[in-house]
Design goal:
With 560 residues, the protein is of the alpha/beta class. The chain has three domains: 3-82, Gyrase A, domain 2, CATH 3.30.1360; 112-357, 3-Layer(aba) Sandwich (Rossmann fold); 370-552, Orthogonal Bundle (Isoleucyl-tRNA Synthetase, Domain 1), CATH 1.10.730.10. It has helices at residues 3-14, 42-48, 52-62, 84-98, 131-146, 162-174, 177-182, 184-201, 204-217, 221-245, 263-272, 304-319, 333-345, 379-393, 401-421, 433-436, 444-458, 475-485, 487-496, 501-519, 528-552; strands spanning 37-40, 68-74, 77-82, 112-116, 150-154, 277-279, 282-285, 293-296, 323-327, 354-357, 362-364, 367-368, 371-372, 375-376, 429-430. It has a four-stranded parallel β-sheet, with helices on both faces. A three-stranded antiparallel β-sheet has the order 1-3-2. A three-stranded antiparallel β-sheet has the order 6-7-8. The two termini are 36 Å apart.
Length: 560
């Protein structure tokens, strides 16, 4: 049910076709005491050439709907108050019936979205630099599915390039199979670092790196076997991090290497359309509003944009997507502008369906969080650190050892994810473990604690009954009801703007609404009907909190 749409229809009929629908404005007052909706009549006054108060009074006399409890005319505004008992009953029954399905919508029914996200580099540690792409992409996947879209999650692995020739040479020269099998990422990184240290003393080693990469490109059996081993071992290590984050799997792990044999087709298409231009030995595509796109270097090597053009063409043909999202940092804005511009020049009208979902940096003390004691910050280490700190916070809680272990993981990991997603994605975010793990303020643990508190309340009374006509609907409760009503609107808007922070902020607001209600009401009393009503309200809040956090990729502990 859409209250705004109901009101708009009633207003249009009340105005007897004298204005167009676009001329009708419906606002939501900042203070709900002023009304649930406010209709300014000043614009209507210009069209109808009447005093806005007179127009408001005339409309008021014609509005007769069971959803309206009261209508007031104040200073040219028509203030609409919704029937509180009727609406509260509708919302609570809907949530309690639909549970986790509450907020589902079908705007994406029959449509397909591909999301390119996470995309770590194989044979390298899963660094903190990939956190934002991973959690933003996962949240958008959940949000799009909630909106009815079929979503294809693509982990576009960094699994190709000269660095793998260097790594293969390093392994063949200094590697130990047993050591790599025991700790693949650490050992492969060590070999890669050793190669560069040796190459600094003997530049000819770089020729060996290029030679072995050429062998890999040409399908040399030994090189391909080693490369596949490095990739499989890397994916097993990466999955440990994904497991911590609660990400089970991707629909595709096709990385850069997958498109190696598909770039020739891109070059042929560009040449057939006379788009390739020779410039200083290299091939470029000139673009009207962007820097020319470098397609092929003077040494014959293709570049990222060539590979991404091949990927875009393949994904369109293979998945028939309606939208393609690329969750990649702000610094790649030019690259994706060029990608879309080249596709447009190639004559593909679906270039407009490609969206760069950009994001800012993770900062610590105002500086880019990229190194710690001269080493890259590994995401798994960061998550484990958050879990340990969360464990310290709940050490003295009345919980079993297994409950503490589970809750520590959910709180620690949830805090890291929520800190990322509560910020608008293009902004840089400040990271401080102590701050993000606080149980108060705009944090993940604050929402989880509110949920756990509600769970504790619900255990105190099993048989909950409610009489809506006797339910005391004060302003605290009414704010909760209206907030829950707006859940589906937030879900739709977060998809349309590709902005998970809208849901994160909504959940903070809902928690604050509930905690104000809880602070001003005696929840457990001798009056079973009154107690049951308040507890059922708490249950509806808990259902929405849990589903909202699931959309962000965060699980909720039952006890804290």
């Amino acid at each position: 049910m859409n209250l705004k749409k109901i009101l708009e229809d009633d207003l249009y009929l009340a105005l007897d076709g004298q204005v167009e629908r676009k001329d009708i404005t419906i606002n939501s007052p900042k203070e709900r005491e002023m009304g649930d909706y406010a209709v300014p009549c000043f614009n209507l006054s210009k069209i109808l050439r009447k005093n806005p108060n007179i127009i408001a009074e005339q409309i008021k006399g014609k509005l007769n709907n069971e959803w309206y409890q009261n209508i007031e005319v104040i200073n040219g505004y028509l203030n609409i108050f919704i029937n509180k008992i009727r609406f509260t009953k509708y919302i609570m029954e809907k949530v309690l019936k639909e549970k986790e399905a509450y907020g589902n919508c079908d705007i994406g029914k029959g449509k397909i979205i591909v999301i390119d996200y996470s995309s770590p580099n194989i044979a390298k540690p899963f660094g903190v630099g990939h956190l934002r792409s991973t959690v933003i992409g996962n949240a958008l996947k959940n949000i799009c599915e909630k909106n009815g879209y079929k979503v294809v999650g693509i982990n576009y692995l960094g699994d190709f390039g000269t660095q793998f020739g260097k790594l293969i040479y390093a392994y063949k020269t200094w590697g130990n199979e047993e050591a790599v099998r025991k700790n693949p990422i650490a050992e492969l990184k060590k070999l890669y670092v050793q190669f560069h240290e040796e190459a600094a003393l003997d530049e000819k080693l770089n020729d060996q790196g290029r030679l072995y990469f050429k062998k890999l490109e040409d399908g040399d059996e030994e090189c391909v076997k080693l490369w596949k081993w490095f990739k499989e071992a890397s994916l097993l290590e990466f999955q440990k991090t994904y497991d911590l984050l609660g990400i089970k799997s991707f629909d595709s792990y096709d990385g850069e290497s997958f498109y190696n044999d598909k770039m020739g087709e891109v070059l042929d298409k560009l040449e057939a359309k006379n788009l390739l231009e020779l410039s200083e030995g290299a091939y470029i595509v000139r673009l009207e509003d962007e820097t020319p796109a470098l397609i092929k270097r003077s040494d014959g090597a293709t570049l990222y944009i060539t590979r991404d053009l091949a990927a875009a063409l393949y994904r369109k043909k293979h998945y028939h997507f309606d939208e393609a999202l690329y969750v990649v940092g702000n610094e790649q804005t030019l690259h994706f502008n060029q990608l879309k511009a080249v596709l447009e020049k190639m004559g593909y009208d679906w270039y407009e369906d490609i969206h760069h979902i950009s994001f800012g940096l993770i900062l610590q003390n105002g500086k880019k969080m990229s190194t710690r004691h001269g080493k890259s910050v590994e995401l798994q280490d960061l998550l484990n650190e958050a879990i340990t700190l969360a464990s310290d916070y709940i050490e003295n809680r009345d919980m079993t050892r297994e409950e503490k272990r589970q809750a520590s993981r959910e709180i620690g990991v949830g805090a890291v994810i929520f800190n990322d997603l509560k910020n608008y994605r293009t902004n840089d975010i400040e990271f401080n473990l102590e701050d993000i793990l606080k149980f108060e303020g705009e944090t993940g643990p604050y929402i989880q604690y509110t949920y756990a508190r509600i769970n504790s309340l619900l255990k105190k009374q099993k048989n909950m009954k409610i009489d809506y006509n006797s339910l005391a609907i004060n302003q605290y409760l009414w704010n909760i009801v209206f907030r829950i009503y707006n859940f589906d609107e937030i879900i739709i808007k977060s998809k349309m703007t590709y902005d998970p922070s809208l849901i994160a902020k909504y959940l903070i607001d809902l928690c604050q609404d509930f905690n104000r209600y809880y602070a001003n009401e005696r929840f457990i009393t001798d009056d079973e009907i009154a107690t049951g009503g308040r507890l059922l309200i708490a249950q509806t809040v808990s259902l929405v909190l849990k589903e909202g956090m699931r959309l962000l990729g965060i699980t909720m502990p039952n006890k804290m």
